[in-house]
Structures are given as structure tokens and as C-alpha cells.
Amino acid sequence: MDALALLRQHEPVIKKQSGGAAIGIFGAFIRGKEQPDSDVDVLVTFQKGAEDVRQLHGCRFYPEDLFMRNVDPVMKGTIRKRLKPSILGDVVYAQEGCRPP
Question: What are the chain's domains?
């Protein structure tokens, strides 16, 4: 499964449901190391002041149906300091060339 291609194809719907400003994939699916039981790690950036944990669920349910596997959405602003370089260095955004603040 090409998770990034699916995300890019369905990005407008996911962003509309979640209110996300930018959405990308990081982790095993980007590195090509996914396993049959791997979840899809999704990084979401919301417009400043619009961050809401409830909105994060909009980045989970539709993509889980789309990818037919668990999705682990992470808000960019909540990444632990020690994980930030790894995740931000790994993420590929649905919108090509996107580099949210």
C-alpha cells in the first residue's frame, strides 16, 4: 500500500474533517519498513490557536477506513523534545513542498 499516495489523494477530506492546516506521514511507512501490523503515523499541524484534541480524531477515523489499519495521529505541537528531530526529519507532507511552522 502506498500510504503517502492515498493521503495525498484524500488530503482535502481529511483536512476538512479535522481542521488541520497540514498533514503528513512519518515512521515505518515513509522509511519503507512497515509490517503487516504497523500503524500509520500521521503528523498534523493545526492553524495557530485552532489546536484541539477533538479535531485530532478527524485525522484518525477516516484514514483508518482508508488505509484499513490503525492510524496514530500526532499534533506537531505535542511532540516530545527528544523525538522532535527524528519525526520532523522523517515526515513527508501530503502537500508537496509543504513545510509548516
Answer: 3-92 (3.30.460.10)
